[in-house]
Write a structure and sequence with these properties.
Elements (H helix, E strand, L loop, with lengths): L1 H30 L4 H78 L3 H5 L6
Length: 127
Amino acid sequence: MERPSLEVNLSDTQEEGKLYVVDSLNNLNKLNVCPDGAQHVLGTYNRQCSRLFFVTFILTLIVSLALVSFVIFIIIQTRNKMDQISSRLIAEKKNIEELKKINNMILKHLHQSGIQKNEIWSEPSCF
């Protein structure tokens, strides 16, 4: 029988706590801590803060968009430069291959004509 009395006391305590909170809120509301003029100032301040936040947010988006655009531009420029360098390397490789073929043809012709490699690169003996 002691248990039911404890449970009733706990529920009564909770109810009293809830009533105390409600009374406190009502008392604060009745005090009218902020007069009407102060509430107007607070409302204006809140609107200004909202506008400032909105403007800051828009500026942040614009700056972010500009940075992303710049990065994309740099990536495209780098790709174009790499394509140019690659095409130059391919052209130089073709030139080197052609020079090798010409060199081999010259060496073959010299070998067929009987001139030795040492004779070509040595100094002329006629001086």
